[in-house]
Amino acid sequence: MMTRTFNFIDFLKIAVIEVAIFFLIMVFFNIESVWTLVAGLILVVAVVVYAKVWKRQFSSFGEIFSLNKPVVLGVLLVLLLLYPLVGPLMIKQNTYWLLTLIQTGIYIILALGLNIQLGSTGVLNLAVAAFYGIGGYTAGLLALRLGIPTIITLPMGGIVAALFGTILYVPLYKTKGHYMALVTLAFGLMIVLALDNTEFTGGPQGLKAIPEISLLGYSFLTKPGGLHFYTNYYYLTLFIVLLAVIISYRFYNSWVGLTLATTRDDEIAAKCCGVNSNIWKGISFITGNVMIGVAGALYAHMIGFISPHNFSFAESLLIVAMVILGGLDNILGIIVGTVILWILPEKMRVITEYRIFIYGILLLVIPMFRPRGLLPFKPRKYHPSVVKVKD
Amino acid sequence: MSAAICCLFDSCIHARTANCGSRLFPCLWKTLTLRNDMMTLHHEVPETQNRGSNMGTEAVIVQIILNGLMLGVQYALIAVGFTLFFGVLDVINFSHGDVFMLGAFIGLILINIFSKLGMMTGGTSYVLVLFLIFFLCMLVIGLIGIIFERIAVKPVSTGPPLMALLATLGLAIAIREAVRLFYPLGSENKQFPELLKPIFAGTNQAFEIKGVLIRYDNLLIFGIGIAVIVFTSLYINKTKMGLGIRAVAQDSEAAMMMGVHRNRVVDVTFLIGSALAGLTGILNGLFYNTVVFNMGAMGGIIGFSAAVIGGLGNIYGAIIGGFVFAIFSSFHTQGFRVYGCRRLWCSNHLSRFQTIRPPRREDV
Lengths: 391, 364
What we know:
Low-confidence stretches of chain B: 1-52, 337-364
Shape of chain B: globular
Number of helices of chain B: 16
Radius of gyration of chain B: 21 Å
Radius of gyration of chain A: 22 Å
Strand content of chain A: under 5%
Number of domains of chain B: 1
Shape of chain A: globular
Oligomer: heterodimer
Largest interface: A-B, 48 and 53 residues
Strand order of the largest sheet of chain B: 1-4
Low-confidence stretches of chain A: none
Largest sheet of chain A: 2 strands, antiparallel
Strand content of chain B: under 5%
Distance between the termini of chain A: 23 Å
Mean pLDDT of chain A: 84
Number of strands of chain B: 4
Distance between the termini of chain B: 29 Å
Mean pLDDT of chain B: 74
Number of helices of chain A: 15
Strand order of the largest sheet of chain A: 1-2
Number of domains of chain A: 1
């Protein structure tokens, strides 16, 4: 191991590269013609292939990045914080992309929540959208009908989703594997149809005019310094995403994550070692649902309108696809997968009709080249002397 | 397992009837059995269903079971495909529902070609042409199934098993959208010609036993489905290749040691499974007289659920699962018709099912 001393040159290199990528992404947001987009995507793929084939020239950069993780993350965070200020100057359809980024953030929370269930523990939850909806409806109903302040409704969304998760876990823990997936699938369909047919929740028309978030008297509809009011939501989403990422990393790196992994990899062996797999599966299921529910509450407050159609089975499949595509149990991979699966289709709106078709083709083609996910799961390293573990 | 079934049946009930309140308070809904004007909103209720109020209870129940059986044979055919793929390759093939949809559309194309050639004009050769269409559709879909296996399942076999789920999901989206975009006017409901009616041209298309109305063409659909199921199970149980399929399903490595050509077994499995789905597509089109590009989504969910209820990897389980599922859902749907709760049905119908499924498909 090299000693970790702060090196200004390294810092400069990292900052320049990250800022360059940041501006490239903004240019990417601005592209409007189809052929420029295709050319740009081909360029990106070419760079990735180049980096894979001629590893040596890139390895020095890789080393800098892997050795100075705090610096990398710090610069990234600063750039993310600066984005709403730089955006209006750089991007033509700034509001739209701000909203897209917020939605990406919400999907990252959802995908990380699902990752605790599916990636860490192997509980295939096909009712993600249902829990997402439960969170959203809880927040919406509490705020609309009872006028409860949003600082309470946001966590309440998560708590109620967890309660429903606990109820669902009672039949769930008796099942295994695909039967588990089936129970959650049925639950998802049930919730959507129940929401659709209850007068209390507004039926198929959903909840309208859900009040905006206001924290400590600061309404999120005010425009901070002439910027769009989505900026408020951007920072809140960023904060919750960071929270979710930190929770996920703490989960992953602790003995809890290890316990969950043993349950996933070999349940019988885990039981032999004294792991109560039912309890741990339940804990991971419910923890995941808390995150999913909070994301739902955030969505409901931000958009102000939710209906059962927002939480259909297709939505669940999209989130499952994000987790699997990014790489099961790899938090960075899941973030990358979510960004790709949410931003790319938004960008593909320029090809109008063929958008979903190309999207399906992409979902088909990416696994062909990366059959283990974009960034596959790596075995945990508990000791510096364990350099390489073959899996 | 029982929990799974309970939950699933619940969802099935809701999916078919789209009303929770009616299930929770049946008496309340019974008092609401006004044959009000809303009924007319409901487009052309088929003959068999309109007779509901005049029929005896036993006849109604028999009718419901028969309708369930007609549907069940289709669900069972889809579920057999799911269960075969799962048994042999341990993958959940999410694109199977859309292969089923593709079958209906390829059947439509074949019918158009044959009628352009002037071969659909009736007479004794008509039945032969019909068989040819069925056979060609199964063959084409079977070959397409093999191609799909090569592009969506085989490349990801080195990854985690869930990766195949993702790839087949992408494939399903691609198929659905391809049909919508590249089939002429693909996003509309397509009229499926009533091919079976000319066979019974001399009769009055249906017969009645003690108030139970049975249409000949539905009976034929049922017969074809049962025949194919029997043929498939014979193939898997009696032939050498069937033995190979069962061996690979049981233990793939041990089977390869015994000299089973695994890749060929996988190909044959996909050929059979996809061909069954293709045939189901045609049968479904004949049954409802409508096909639409997104009918595969619901077909896939139902097929998967039926296969899981029966026990993934077990063919008989899938068949029974399909029938149980269909009869149950048929009971519930028809139950509403008997009690005259059409108003609810109407509102749900107008609000929601039009987006999920085309209207006529609900009139089972």
